[in-house]
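Dear Dr. H.,

I hope your travels went smoothly. While you were away I took the liberty of generating a structure for the chain from your last submission, since the lab meeting agenda had it listed for discussion. I wanted you to have the full record in hand beforehand rather than looking at slides cold. The sequence, exactly as received, is reproduced here:
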Amino acid sequence: MNNARPFEIQRIDHVVLRVQDLPRALRFYRDVLGCTVARERPSLGMVHLQAGASMIDLVDIAGPLGAPGGPAAGARGRNLEHLCLRVEPFDVEHLRAHLQMHGVALTGKPESNFGAEGEGLSVYLHDPDGNGVELKGPASDCGCAE
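The corresponding predicted structure, in token form, is as follows:
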């Protein structure tokens, strides 16, 4: 039996988030994090956002695509642990100040985490629906791998 796969994973293409208030979620991902609207699909209750080389799709939980997923996730039951966005430049104080201007707080202190490029600093926050978002800087040679 040949176990060779006929493909190789290249990157995450997109993440789909079910949201309770589509305009509020759009403002957060567009205005606070800097994603750009690639396509809007009102008949589906969906907005496709460009996030660097990847996409984040926002789906209204009351819309045709979101409703089959059931009620919105709550503080004790989530659909997603977090999504990680690689950002450049990565300056914690500038990130913190920008987020605070939008009423968004970091959850904890910057810490080193492993990601697609290796070990590097990142910070965490929550979107308006309580989904975790990690903003990750470049890999560093900090020697902080566990």
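Two observations you may find useful: The CA atoms of residues 78 and 96 lie 25 Å apart. The first helix runs from residue 22 to 32.

With kind regards,
E. W.
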